[in-house]
Hints:
Number of strands: 10
Distance between the termini: 78 Å
Mean pLDDT: 92
Helix content: 25-40%
Bound molecules: cobalamin
Order of helices and strands: HEHHEEEHEHEEEHHHEHEHHHHHH
Radius of gyration: 22 Å
Strand order of the largest sheet: 1-2-8-5
Low-confidence stretches: none
Amino acid sequence: MENLVYQYAKDHELVAGICDAKRLVPPVDIGKIATPFTESNKEMRLDPLRIMPSAKSIIVIGMGYNKKDNFRHDNEIRGIISKGAIGLDYHKRLKEHLLAIGNLIENAGGSYEIFVDTGPLIERELAKKAGIGFQGKNCLIINEKLGSFFYIGHMLTDIGLKFSKPVNTEDILCNTCDRCIKACPGKALSEGYKFSYETCVSYLTQKKEKLTEKEMEIMGRSIYGCDICQNVCPYNKGKYAEEIKDIDLRFPRIENFIGLNNKEFKETYGNTSAFWRGRSILTRNALIAAGNSGDEKALEFLENMLKSPSENARYAAQYSINKLKLKYLPLNNCK
Ligand code: B12
């Protein structure tokens, strides 16, 4: 059975590993690490048997998404959509793979439950236990073949399978490299895996609550998600799943982006993993990105946005206008 799973993974350019369904033992007390978007019951996060009492094994798969950008700089004012949010939503793609593996399990008389991202279990702990990779200083799991740019999905099954060799939590193969820690704009990462989600750009682009000026500053040009701590990682060098052909999907022209109506927004982003966050928050982020671009050409469309019915949009546009005006204030005005 394991061989069928590994063969499926190989045929579809996935990585796979299998671990037992015993309670997870993370290297730190996760009760002390509060993060958004997660199940609050600690036991649900750690104990697979609370989710599927008959579970004997957990199949963990990883799907690479690193993308090569071959774009030249132009004069447009552009924002950034993180690599993982380009193309068909990874939740859907990984789910399809897990369902195909589920067919193999059913054929062998077993039953299963599948999860991608939104399940309660800590997926990075599962990935380490299933031997997929070690946890880098950027907190992400780094796999030999895919680097860190891969998404994780998992399946609980009542079939007893042969387990892979787990990755030792002490195996931190970053050694003295700290590029991700230094590159993080919000200083969200630090040695010893102390991750402050509050200043992680990825989190800020998803945060619904009103942003402070400092937070808007940290976001730079990001419209959704952030790749900085992965882009600088030597383990990702040269490991690409594909090349992005359409610059406007990866680096959207901000003026166009904020001009999309609901229908156009759905048509362009409806199938991506950024869509769930909604047009209002992503438009807010694009307006912030315009100010952070430092390009005064943005002032015209930003000033128009001060009339927007959306408070989020007006607030972000005002931040950006203030920022650009301050930058372009002629020196003789400062007398
Ligand atoms: C909430 C969440 C977020 C939040 C909070 C992230 C966080 N660090 O917790 C936000 C929105 C910020 C976020 C951002 C991103 N996320 Co996210 N996120 C999640 C989610 C849903 C839960 C994470 C979680 O449980 N956090 C809570 C605590 C327990 O985790 P933790 O703080 O990392 O704690 C660990 C470390 O501290 C570590 N640790 C502590 N001390 C020590 C000491 C040693 C020696 C070691 C080895 C480890 C260690 O152990 C703890 C347990 O693993 C998971 C999916 C899932 N269901 O698991 C995806 C997930 C972790 N995210 C993922 C991705 C891809 C991202 C982004 C790259 C997306 C993007 N492009 O913007 C960024 C990367 C940010 C980063 N550098 O971590 C992937 C990671 C894939 C991988 N290869 O590792 C996951 C698994 C989703 C998926 N299905 O693929 N994410």
